[in-house]
């Protein structure tokens, strides 16, 4: 058994989130969390209001069990620890049962300050959550402003250990560029078209050449990574030059002058309100490549360790702050909890209905394409 886990029965872990379908930010955090604790021998249950391929299949491969989508089957107090995202705590059953743990360590991941599902501050959070992992300093500051007083750690959207490797020599100009984006900015798309005649550009994400998980080998095999958000720490950990730009704009190549501001905004590109044309992006990617290489070579391991994911996830192994009997008492005695539960179920219903409608529209579009001239009719 790995360090931090006691011998005997594997610790039971609940991971709960709103949706698991796309290969995207919050879904990848769930997958990486599941893989981290599966490697440590934990027995893992994953809940989502909506689950579908491809992410649901990857979760099942990691945990050995399908994603649970019925909240009535989830009792958080039956687990030793729980990692939760989005506003799902109000969906679950907290009544006493024979297999209940004396105490359950509950850690909430907060991955944005702008999204309703990520906003935090619900009474369920205040009563049940022992610790918060915030993806950026801005998210942590937002939680403090709304009065959420649970201990909070900024985890910098950190990367699993597999991404960490020494700096490898780079060419004078990039020969292989990896672009990771599910929402490609039109100017960035134009820049890719301008670069492609002389440079191999691999666009991973919605609307790109392929939709797949970003792996350590993909990052290490690139001379340059162009992306925002969660992919940026992957590049930093791999000592690969990174150009931060997408639909929010961005600072371009990271360096010692812009890194702190970019990180404060979770490498979203919002840090500087800087917009460029496709021609300008392409010229900067090639012309300032040496700047990106110099910064990729520079960081020392002690600095990079802020982007190492396992120590943050292992906060789930710390002792709970309050036992489950006390948490239940607070739930029962807090007047607005029943209304919050209704709101959580309302949010769930709206999301599930939207996903079902999206699925129906996609099926109808597929049938219409088949009925077009030259197509096959079902």
TrEMBL record:
It comes from the Bacteria. SUPFAM superfamilies: UDP-Glycosyltransferase/glycogen phosphorylase. This is Uncharacterized protein. The lineage of its organism: Bacteria, Pseudomonadati, Pseudomonadota, Alphaproteobacteria, Sphingomonadales.
